[in-house]
């Protein structure tokens, strides 16, 4: 087996960077990991990784063929991580049902909504004076969706915090986090230097390491040179900008905005099922289509971001909301993927707006119109989620997903000693543990646990290896 790298540097502390750090440190007994995060307010996982729904679906019916092997492996990694770090109590890891719901839909909207994977067993649920039948919490025509291959849920913010805390305490000599920016990358070592360093004793060998110039986020901000053996770009939607700054091959990456809410439901309106001793809402992910909905696929995959149309402004509700019952009793609601008004105009090439320079500027873009649309959609799906019935909006959130031009993840070598893992789109929480393990194996020169060959950046014919 070739010598393992001494120093791995990971750019980005989202779920992808954290899972890769976890598996690199767990698989190797010597490799050191330096995690660099550019947040000015020193946030770990301050992007989508803390504001996502946390729905984990690993069966083939939820993913296109190029990512199916990775998704299957990620299911095992989620379970393994949960067993190792007490995921059930730390990040609310639990199995979950998946439901398609047509709310007052026309025939046309219902047939589109049925394109969700493998719906079966339709039941119409209707409230009587805001009270739903026992055991039910949403109103409309329900269909059970395909859960083969595994469906679960996590609280992604708690997941990321637990993993980062664990790495900091379990690997004090091999794991370091620095806040700041990587501003330049040295040229690759010559082929001769790399060959010589592989065979000569380290004292005699020329260095095959590349150098990253790093400017820390502190008052004196003096640039530092960091030698490394492997560099991973895992900066979510900022990964394209990182490639540009470091003069790496460009990647066709854009972003898809997403607003979300965390709602404490009005539980006084919920009657537990007589057949269950559990007084809580069922562990369920609900993919709803409200009358005239254009969606029916996982809402966040239903198109690249665009501004609200005049019709949507008049309608005033999110057409394809997604609702997840969290283990802590809160309901997460998303599916409003329009560009926020302050996010700047849509670009002429049809791609979404430019991102703020760092993650810290994202929350200022939260758009009250989008929040209002989500609140009204939540109320249309369940009386338990209406503020006038006692529901409490605990959080209003906004963030960006990284998404590639062909909607598939980008995972693999990008340049000598440089790797990339991004563009997980609406599936980053599902895929990150599997991607973290496979990329760690790739960087350590090990056999890979999943086939990610179709996800390599070379598919865009731009990466120069
Ligand atoms: C509303 C919404 C709901 C979602 N729900 C789900 C779901 O239910 N299930 C699911 O599987 N997925 C879901 N997703 C998708 C998932 O959240 C993302 O795919 C995933 O979080 C992306 O993780 P990441 O680590 O690639 O990026 P991010 O979380 O964006 O992390 C990137 C990190 O890199 C940092 N960074 C940026 N630039 C630099 C730089 N130059 N140097 C160093 N660091 C840098 C950022 O500050 C950030 O901390 C959802 C997404 C959204 C928006």
UniProtKB/TrEMBL annotation:
Domain (FAD dependent oxidoreductase) ranges: 8-442
One term under GO cellular component: late endosome
Gene Ontology biological process: retrograde transport, endosome to Golgi
InterPro entries: FAD-dep_OxRdtase (IPR006076), FAD/NAD-bd_sf (IPR036188)
PANTHER family registered for this protein in UniProt: FAD DEPENDENT OXIDOREDUCTASE SUPERFAMILY (AFU_ORTHOLOGUE AFUA_3G02360), SARCOSINE DEHYDROGENASE-RELATED
Descriptive protein name: FAD dependent oxidoreductase
Naturally occurring in which organism (per UniProt): Rhodotorula toruloides
Gene name linked to the record: FGENESH: predicted gene_5.39
């Amino acid at each position: 087996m070739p010598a393992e790298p001494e120093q791995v540097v990971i750019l980005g502390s989202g779920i992808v960077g954290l899972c890769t750090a976890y598996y690199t440190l767990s698989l190797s007994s010597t490799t050191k990991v330096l995690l660099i995060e550019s947040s000015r307010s020193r946030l770990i996982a301050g992007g989508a990784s803390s504001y996502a729904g946390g729905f984990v679906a690993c069966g083939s019916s939820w993913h296109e063929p190029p990512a199916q092997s990775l998704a299957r492996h990620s299911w095992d990694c989620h379970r393994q991580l949960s067993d190792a770090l007490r995921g059930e109590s730390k990040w609310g890891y639990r199995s979950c049902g998946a439901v398609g719901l047509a709310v007052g839909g026309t025939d046309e909207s219902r047939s589109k909504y049925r394109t969700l994977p493998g719906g079966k067993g339709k039941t119409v649920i209707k409230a009587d004076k805001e009270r739903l039948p026992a055991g039910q919490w949403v109103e409309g025509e329900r269909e059970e969706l395909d859960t083969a291959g595994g469906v679960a849920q996590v609280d992604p913010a708690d997941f990321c915090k637990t993993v980062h805390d664990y790495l900091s305490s379990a690997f004090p000599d091999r794991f370091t986090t620095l806040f700041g920016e990587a501003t330049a990358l040295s040229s690759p070592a010559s082929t001769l230097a790399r060959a010589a360093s592989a065979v000569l004793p380290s004292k005699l060998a020329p260095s095959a390491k590349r150098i990253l110039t790093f400017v820390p986020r502190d008052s004196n901000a003096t640039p530092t040179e960091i030698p490394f053996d492997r560099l991973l770009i895992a900066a979510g939607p900022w990964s394209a900008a990182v490639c540009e700054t470091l003069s790496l091959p460009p990647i066709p990456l854009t972003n898809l905005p997403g607003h979300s809410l965390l709602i404490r439901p009005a539980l006084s309106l919920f009657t537990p099922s007589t057949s269950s001793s559990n007084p809580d809402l069922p562990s369920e992910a609900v993919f709803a289509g409200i009358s005239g909905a254009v969606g029916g696929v996982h809402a966040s995959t239903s198109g690249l971001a665009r501004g609200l149309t005049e019709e949507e402004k008049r309608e005033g509700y999110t057409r394809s909301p997604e609702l997840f019952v969290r283990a802590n009793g809160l309901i997460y609601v998303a599916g409003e993927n329009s560009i926020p008004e302050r996010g700047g105009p849509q670009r002429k090439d049809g791609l979404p707006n430019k991102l703020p320079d760092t993650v810290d500027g994202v929350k200022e873009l939260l758009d009250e119109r989008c929040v209002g649309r989500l609140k009204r959609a939540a109320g249309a799906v369940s009386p338990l989620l209406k503020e006038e019935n006692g529901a409490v909006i605990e959080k209003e959130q906004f963030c960006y997903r990284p998404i590639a031009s062909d909607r598939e993840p980008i995972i693999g070598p990008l340049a000598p000693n440089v790797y990339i893992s991004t563009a997980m789109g609406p599936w980053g929480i599902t895929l990150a543990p599997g991607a973290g393990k496979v990329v760690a194996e790739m960087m350590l020169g090990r056999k890979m646990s999943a086939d990610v060959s179709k996800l390599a950046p070379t598919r865009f014919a731009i990466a120069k290896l």
